[in-house]
Amino acid sequence: MRYTPEMEPAVTLTSGPVNAYPDVLRGLGRTVLYDYDPAFQRLYEQVVEKAQVAMRTETRPVILQGEPVLGLEAAAASLIAPEDVVLNLVSGVYSKGFGYWAKRYSPNVLELEVPYNEAVDPAAVAEMLKAHPEITVVSACEHDTPSGTINPIEEIGTLVRAHGAYLIVDAVSSFGGMRTHPEDCRADIYVTGPNKCLGAPPGLTMLGVSGRGWDKMKANANAPRASILSILDWENAWSREEAFPFTPSVAEINGLDVALDLYLGEGPEKVWERHALTAAATRAGVTAMGAALWAARETIASPTTTAVRTPEGIDEAELRRVARERYGVVFSSGRAETQGKLTRIGHMGPTAQPIFAVAAVTALGGALNALGGTANVGRGVEAALAVIDAA
Ligand SMILES: *Cc1c(COP(=O)(O)O)cnc(C)c1O
Asked: How far is the CA of 242 from the centre of ligand 1 (A)?
């Protein structure tokens, strides 16, 4: 056994959290300033401004002090009132999970569910909205990570806005890895975070909130205030003149500052390009070696995660164990309904580098063969390289 469980792996190719960029790790080590020190208040305002530039919003984003699950629950609690009728679009485990939060805040939750290797069809959303004019809130997940598939969120957003409803978008594992922004998809609350494609550790949520999203939350008598779940508490916290509702996670803000500098410094288009290329090379390698993609069609496969269908007769947990033990490569499993049925190769932040497609295909193919599979690893590597070299 080359890589024992006690040892660190050689490379973590998961779909988040991912190892942080070295510069972000150095940023986390900056001085932990007193939160009311003018230097920190200035830094906090600047970080929110950088997030606004990165998210391309008119309104200032909000940072919440917990990894993005906090932002998702806070969005449900703040935006959804008991009289709302919610349409939850389900294409995987995260969007399914959001429905349970939605039901906590309104008894009226409808669902439109597609198989977890499919994408939500905007035509079906349009039909649902037409059949149910009473729908006031729609929730969707852009990239339901345990499925590795992308939903057409801008088309969905256009329909939702035309209907007059509010839109909550989970963009945790898509933002920063592909072209996606809160206002492009007309989201009223857009939830993301630093711990996927921005290459920072888990610990914060970044929210894009529209003007009408703020109005709706303020009109909701049940929206949390003076609570860890509150979005409203943080409305003016960006300003160096205003008090924080409670102590911000100073070290995480330091790390996010660097992560945003890296993203904006490299150039978002360049960052998206290397995510897309790494994913395309991985897909080519995986299919050329004889394995199958989980996604029903390559056009809906995510640029930030490649989900590979587990071949008949192979134990998925064993497959990941062998890949780690022999090659020191860590992949993600499926979750809930997709657990045991697929293995996920992440391309996020620092691991969205094309050469990691070669490492991923090699380690996955080697592990498949160690378990009696018939992967043609050489063909897979050549196919991955061909995609990289053609770019
Ligand atoms: C990662 C992720 C989250 C945050 O959840 P954790 O697994 O707890 O980090 C939320 N939604 C999506 C789609 C994600 O990929």
From this structure: 30
